[in-house]
Write a structure and sequence with these properties.
single chain; 459 residues; mainly beta; Jelly Rolls; OB fold (Dihydrolipoamide Acetyltransferase, E2P); 4 domains; seven-stranded mixed β-sheet; six-stranded antiparallel β-sheet; 32 strands; 48% strand; disordered N terminus; disordered C terminus
């Protein structure tokens, strides 16, 4: 079954357009993306009315910055940025892209691909010269239900990221009439999804999301801790082929978590990835949402999970862990420890609040010490003030800055204010026992064992 979305408002026509043509839809930036990204690899979607475009290898900035354009082109690596539509039911005669900044010498090709399929197999390619201002792609034979992709192939700039900036994209209809409701997504069978997914490059993720309808097979238990579930999909409830996987799916019903059981007929929605390890390909939907079409009988109880106990370590211990990590091979990259911890210490050298509302500060075990450990872009329970005692949860990393300097840090951790520990005090009670105060909590150590006696009196 194909998904259709209602178009609830007539589209206004641009005064500069010819009378026989009309503005089908326009996206200006930053628009209303599904997410904001400060890198040049993450994909995101922007929806205008009934029309959705998917962007890959663009940087749309942080929401608070409200950049007036999206950027593509990387300083260190070649890249191909794409803007991809679903099937548009209205025929399109022109696609117009407005650039506010370009680097023509680093842009290998600017093209529009037009195809009758989501894979862009046998697509018509229309090449244009990149230039500041409006660049128009003329579609020679406008037709309904076609897919469109704007592709910008770029070499590495060497000096700056985001050297090509786009201000808006317009899709023009040939007849100037009110747009008919477009076909946004097709629902695929598992076999169809596998065929599309298998055309991806190894370890590549599709720019487009897909609905895949089928039966859940080889279902793993629902993870209450992470709120997701892994299962495979087949075109029948008795299928045994495990080539197509719903990886870390998020099954919901009536707004609440609802585990998938083997035999359920579901419609999963997400981007596809061809994951390859040791030469073996696993075709999958990544973090898809799940809609239930038919349900089998069975227990869907979710057992509650208690909070995960994390190690709390000193800043000095965090520094030692970070120093032991391998040095990143490239500037601007990090190596990150796999274990999540809580680092405690005084906030020293507190920087101005970041534009996204986070804080960056150095941490030290003494309030007046130099802090070589960074809590970078930390989300905190309150504003951070110099000298306050902080607990920061996250993964420890060793980062090489763009200037080649090594920085020891937790990046994008979660910080809370707290009281500084009272230190460790040892008082001999007997020949075999000691009273030990650790972080303000009283313990008794005897015969090599530590006994928690918080709230008790020690004589």
């Amino acid at each position: 079954m194909k998904k259709f979305f209602a178009f609830v408002a007539a589209v206004l026509f641009a005064g500069s357009m010819m009378a026989e043509e009309g503005l089908l839809f326009e996206q200006t930036y930053p628009g209303n993306p599904t997410e904001y990204t400060n890198n040049y690899t993450t994909s995101f979607d922007i929806t205008t009315g009934a029309y959705k475009l998917t962007y890959a290898c663009f940087n749309n900035g942080k929401q608070e910055q409200a950049w007036d354009a999206i950027r593509c082109g990387r300083k260190s690596d070649a890249s191909v940025a794409t803007i991809t539509s679903g099937a548009i039911a209205e025929s399109v005669s022109k696609v117009i892209v407005e650039f506010t900044q370009i680097n023509a010498s680093k842009t290998n090709q600017l093209a529009l691909l037009v195809a009758d399929n989501a894979n862009f197999a046998d697509a018509t390619q229309i090449v244009q010269t990149i230039a500041v201002g409006e660049v128009t792609f003329e579609v020679a034979a406008p037709a309904a239900n076609m897919y469109y992709q704007i592709s910008i192939d770029m070499a590495a700039d060497g000096s700056a990221n985001g050297f090509n900036r786009i201000d808006k994209v317009q899709f023009i209809s040939p007849d100037g009439g009110t747009p008919i409701v477009p076909e946004v997504y097709d629902t695929l069978t598992v076999a169809q999804a596998k065929a599309i997914c298998d055309t991806l490059a190894d370890n590549a993720t599709s720019a487009t999301k897909y609905y895949v309808e089928g039966y859940a097979i080889n279902v793993e238990p629902y993870s209450a801790q992470y709120g997701n579930q892994i299962f495979f999909m087949g075109d029948s409830a008795t299928a045994t082929d495990t080539e197509f996987e719903a990886y870390y799916a998020v099954p919901m019903k009536d707004g609440a978590a609802y585990p998938v059981l083997a035999g359920d007929k579901v419609r999963a929605f997400g981007k596809m990835k061809k994951y390859v390890k040791d030469g073996v390909a696993q075709l999958e939907l990544v973090n898809p949402t799940v809609e239930f079409l038919e349900e089998v009988e069975g227990d869907r109880t979710i057992e509650p999970v208690g909070p995960t106990k994390l190690d709390t370590i000193t800043t000095a211990e965090a520094v030692a862990i970070a120093q032991a990590l391998p040095e990143p091979a490239e500037a601007g990259k990090s190596t990150t420890d796999t274990k999540e911890v809580v680092v405690r210490g005084y906030a020293v050298n507190v920087y101005d609040k970041n534009s996204d509302g986070t804080w960056t500060f150095n941490m030290a075990d003494e309030a007046d010490a130099y802090g070589e450990f960074y809590a970078s872009n930390t989300t905190t329970d309150a504003d951070v003030v110099q000298g306050e005692y902080m607990y920061v949860k996250g993964k420890i990393a060793k980062r090489k800055t763009n200037g080649g300097k090594i920085q020891l840090q937790i990046y994008k951790g979660t910080g809370t204010h707290g009281e500084a520990p009272q230190g460790i005090e040892n008082v001999v009670l007997t020949e075999k026992a000691q009273k030990v105060m650790v972080d303000g909590v009283l313990y008794i150590v005897r015969d090599g064992k530590m006994f928690d006696v918080r709230g008790a009196q020690v004589r």
